[in-house]
From TrEMBL:
Keyword flag Hydrolase: yes
One Pfam family per UniProt: A_deaminase
Keyword DNA damage: no
Taxonomic source organism: Huiozyma naganishii (strain ATCC MYA-139 / BCRC 22969 / CBS 8797 / KCTC 17520 / NBRC 10181 / NCYC 3082 / Yp74L-3) (Yeast)
Gene Ontology BP terms: adenine catabolic process; hypoxanthine salvage; nucleotide metabolic process; purine ribonucleoside monophosphate biosynthetic process
GO molecular function: adenine deaminase activity; zinc ion binding
Domain Adenosine deaminase: 11-334
Family matches, as Gene3D superfamilies: Metal-dependent hydrolases
Protein's recorded name: Adenine deaminase
Class in the EC hierarchy, top level: hydrolase
GO cellular component: cytosol; nucleus
Residue numbers annotated as active site: E207
Keywords for this protein: Cytoplasm, Hydrolase, Metal-binding, Nucleotide metabolism, Nucleus, Zinc
Length: 334
């Protein structure tokens, strides 16, 4: 297998990271105290206890129940800044060069936190990361698919200004996948395209849901990228299409293990994706919950695909650069 040092030096891009998913237990408890947020009855009381819960999620929904509690402790602009800054600080030591970052505005606006508070803190951290670490980044608004589509549409409207002034690069769709197919959000994506035709579009699909959700994301929502997407391998026609259209799948190895999508990273269909010439990137999803940041994800893949040499990882890194949403000038630098 390739060495950790090689993987650290490899210029890596991250396309699937939820900023709320970088909230470490060590920060969750002090923030809850500082902001006077009461944690639900029965919630773990120490970081150690919480880490033990995180090690044993039953599925996506079980994780989301913890994730949304964590989200509630974030209140001030400085909280959002501190959260994103802690992330940049960590990955600056892991060879990350470019990050496209999700956040869930509805989780905050539903508690009375203004979108300017959330966006302001995150945006400021992105600016500082560029200055201090040379890491470029973009922000992606994720719609919560368990919420009524009308709420999601309102979120798009509320973000109109940020969708056109360069603050927000794209739209995504996350949360509980299975009873909420992409078709429910056609109007939301259509409205986003109307507001800004250059907006980039992606959606979580094919994590717990079927390959059909991946096809529907492309056909109905007009996404040019798919988050997770690992269930695409069950549809040969779809695989050919992803390869032909150079649609990037943002795969999250450690997440897929922690959420019981697969038992081990080695079971992921990464070889099938390579053989089918389907571009994919490796990502951390919610690193504070799933036991690793970007480098740990690369390292685990290298361990479980020990026959992959430098050329394979160079190709993965190159596909990640090509599938990024930065301009060509920046891609050349990366
Ligand atoms: N899937 C769906 N929703 C999410 C995820 C995920 O991996 N992470 C944070 N919200
Ligand atoms: Zn995700």
């Amino acid at each position: 297998p390739v060495s950790v040092e090689f993987l650290r030096e490899l210029p890596k891009c991250e396309h699937h990271l939820h900023l709320e998913g970088t909230l470490e237990p060590d920060l969750l408890f002090p923030l809850a105290r500082r902001n006077g947020v009461e944690l639900p009855a029965g919630f773990p009381q120490t970081p150690e206890e919480l880490h033990r819960k995180y090690a044993a999620f039953a599925d996506l929904q079980d994780f989301l129940n913890y994730y949304y509690v964590g989200t509630n402790v974030l209140q001030t602009e400085q909280d959002f800044y501190d959260l994103a800054w802690a992330y940049f600080n960590k990955v600056s030591k892991q060879g990350l060069v470019h990050a496209e970052l999700f956040f869930d505005p509805q989780s905050h606006t539903s508690r009375g936190v203004a979108i300017e508070t959330v966006t302001g803190g995150f945006h400021r951290a992105c600016t500082d990361a560029r200055e201090q670490f040379g890491i470029t980044s973009q922000l992606i608004v994720c719609l919560l698919r368990h919420c009524p589509p009308a709420d999601c549409l309102q979120t798009i409207e509320d973000f109109s200004k940020f969708l056109t002034d360069g603050t927000i690069t794209g739209i995504g769709l996350d949360s509980a996948e299975k009873p909420f197919p992409p078709g429910l959000f056609v109007e939301c994506y259509q409205r986003a395209r109307e507001i800004n035709p250059d907006l980039r579009l992606t959606a979580h699909a094919g994590e717990e849901g079927p390959a059909q959700y991946v096809s529907d994301s492309l056909d109905l929502l007009h996404t040019t990228r798919v988050d997770h997407g690992v269930n695409s391998v069950h549809d040969a026609e779809l695989m050919r299409r992803l390869a032909a259209e150079r649609t990037l799948l943002t795969v999250c190895p450690l997440s897929n293990v922690r959420l019981q999508v697969v038992k081990r990273v080695g079971e992921l269909p990464l070889q099938q994706l390579l053989d089918g010439d389907v571009p994919f990137s490796l990502n951390s999803d919610d690193p504070a919950y799933f036991g690793g940041y970007i480098l740990e994800n690369y390292v685990q893949v290298a361990k479980e695909f020990p026959h992959w040499d430098h050329a394979v990882f160079a190709k993965i890194a190159k596909n990640a650069i090509n599938g990024s949403w930065c301009d060509n000038k920046r891609k050349t630098q990366l």
